[in-house]
Amino acid sequence: MAELPGLDERGEGASGAPTLADCCLADNRLNLDVYPTGCRRLLQLFEGRRAEVVQVEFLRLSTNDRLLGAALGVLPRLKHLKSLVLKGGHARDEFGSCQHGSLTSLPPGVGSLRCLTHLDLSFNSLSTLPSCIPRLPSLRVLSVSHNSLVALPDDFGSLSKLTFFSAMKNQLMDLPQSIGDLAALKDLDLSENALEALPEEVGNLHSCTQLDLSGNRLSSIPDSVGNLKALRQLHLHSNLLVTVPASLASLPNLSRLDLRNNCLRAVPPEIQTLPFVHLRGNPLGETEPSPQAEGSSATELQRLFLASGEDSFTVTSEGCEVILACGIHFYFPPGAASDPVRIDFRSLEPDPRWVKLQHHDVLLSRVLELQPHGVTFQQEVQIWMPYASPQSLQQREVVVRTFSGHSWSDLRTQVEQETKSKHVAHCRVLHFSWFLVVSRLVQNECQVSTEGTLLFSSVDPNIKVTFPPGVTEETRSVKLQVLPVSTEEIAELTADAGCRASPLLCLSQDSLVDFLKPVRIQLPLPFGVTGLNLDRSRLHLLRGDVQGQTWDDITSQVVLELTHLYAVFEVTHFSWYWLWYTTKTYIGGIAKKVYERLRMYQVNFIALQRKKDPEQVLLQCLPKHKVDPVLKKLQDRYRGPEPSDMVEMFEGEQFFAAFERGISIDMDRPDCVDGRLSFIFYSHLKNMKEIYVSFYRGAVPESIPEEASRRRKGPDSLWLATLPIKLPRLKPRWGENPSPQNGFSFSPLNLGNAETGYLTQANLLSIARRVGADWQTIGLNLGLTYQQIERIGYNHREDLDKQILDMLFSWAQQNSEDPDCVSKLIKAMKESGRQDIADEVESIIELGRHKYRESIRRVGLEQESSTEDSATAAM
């Protein structure tokens, strides 16, 4: 096997010091999915430290890794493996979306892993379930969400120990009858697939407590679902249900029944009166229109109100109105869709790599993606998109811009004001793709035919373009935009009070062919200059390219006619034109600098530390006029330095933030590159990020410049500003004894008993690191009340770590005398869908049992006990 650069065959560096490989191989775990070369490291470790690797019980790999195929060959050799995570989503595409992994199958030998209880294959490219999976005898948790599965194998029911199965976000069209054989299954998630019917055998899942079938194409569900006596939650929203069985009302443990956004016109009374049923978005009480009534009175359209977590809905031929939680509004008229079609939507961060703004464009919204792309509706669908209202709309207009997959184009847009501070952009489309809202220079447009025409600017009617008869053989489209420039701006930017310039004229057309006859253009003379008093030697007509990078003086190349107020000239092809009045000689270079400055925003950077947790830092980039109100709004929760020096930035410009002097960004996030955090400046969107940074004392990291604020040369020449961050009081690391002044003081804990093994305070702290956002669910399953959970959330509402610690240790203090408390903790983790943590607790307990037996054996008590047992038996 080829040797990895920088590592010897033992996985150590040349100096023998511990390397990243040593850190990865901790106890019986290999967490390699956070490293871009995780598969390489697995292969290296397997080659050099095979005896340790084959004992691994927990393994995580990224399936976005190019060496995945070779790494998969190692898996059948890991006979002790209990938990295997092979997930994609660790890389992002050009639209900022998670990329699915390359995994399409598993080696047949994986079916021989008899200890494997937890398997996660989410965010991959599976079209069929690997045949080895139904042969895993101990498998209890299986996740294949976000793949491309169209069916499950007929022998899927052989997974007799399976308690959790998630196949959400696939393309399943039906289920095998054997699914009813999963007698131990408690949690089944088949949401957002293409299921049109369910087998009757679903009613045999007698252990099932949670069943999610939302976002499918179900028109009915079998009566056998009424046999699921253990069922607590049933999610059926966003389907095509026209009826539901009344037997659902008799399920004894049911606490939530979600029937929103279906086609239910009537619901059994016993279901409709349930306090936990959700029916919003159904045409309840409406009757099918009779042929005689058609045309006489329009039936009110179904209205769907989607909650924050929902990301899809279904449109039928009857049409509907849809209002998203973010305020986006859709209107699908009757007949827009001939067949039912599911619409998926998501909001994306704008990325300048594919969101191409024109000069002087201002982005006013995030990117809305609607799928399926390219689907054609029979009638126009209306969209209302809220946007960040710019300070002034004078000489500008708001448009919705759409992306075809190759280029962006502007839609005919109407601006509507819903409230004093809320504006929406309204457009009509026949197909779906990507949409965003921008503010652009006002655009006047006309069609030029052989007869000729006149086009003038609505911003400045003194700017006119005359097309004479015979100017073109084929009709072409012409666009005109004007950028007014004040005398004060020109004087400030050129440092010359006598310098003047006309409005900037931008002309474009949809043809590459020059006009057959000269086109006559009229521009107003610069402010304060008239045809009676001007010095013609100081008057310059400039022509710029489409990017404004070069400005040529064409005064001597055209016949410039002057009147009292205007300058008139003729051209045969279009470009940008600018009239200047100045004594300066190299006017082209000056115009280029002024044009660039007109596109820039004056910007401040701020870095604030949260008062309750100094390691949490808020970084924000703000236009100058927003700094004071933002700081005033945040001063109660944050403290920090004064804003940075003023810098100038373009709309959509990318920049990086980093810390120096022993402070590094400690996180795993896609916008962090080489310890520097990537930002993109948009003047009307929030350029804000909250991060955790690790503070430490010692040598300054080599990758962070020590004097970035003073040395502006070499690799630091692009640094914009440096902001000081105060080093807070050192906080204890996980597993160390927290001091009372840091907010928590825990007495020593020993949960369980010596014979079965203890869970100590250090063990709980280790477990807490993995809980994350599931802490509330885990707390409820541990027996904490809703009131306790709400109080913990409120007391530490700005600190997730403290919420988790408070929940775990509150439970531990209450149950420290209960000999079965460890078993209850394991059960709660399983019920919360956290089999990985349950496995970790069981491993800790098993280690405790082993140590206890060894200690008994060492002191000779085991033999003595055996002798007594033998004597008792002899009596």
Automatic annotation (TrEMBL):
Site feature: Cleavage: 432-433, 574-575
Keywords linked to the UniProt accession: Leucine-rich repeat, Repeat
Region forming the signal peptide: none
Any one GO biological process: signal transduction
GO CC annotations, alphabetized: cytoplasm
PROSITE patterns in the record: DEATH_DOMAIN, LRR, ZU5
Domain ZU5: 309-441, 442-583
Organism domain of life: Eukaryota
Domain Death: 760-845
SUPFAM superfamilies xrefs: DEATH domain, L domain-like
Active site: 431, 433, 573, 575
Protein name: P53-induced death domain-containing protein 1
Species lineage: Eukaryota, Metazoa, Chordata, Craniata, Vertebrata
Gene behind this protein: PIDD1
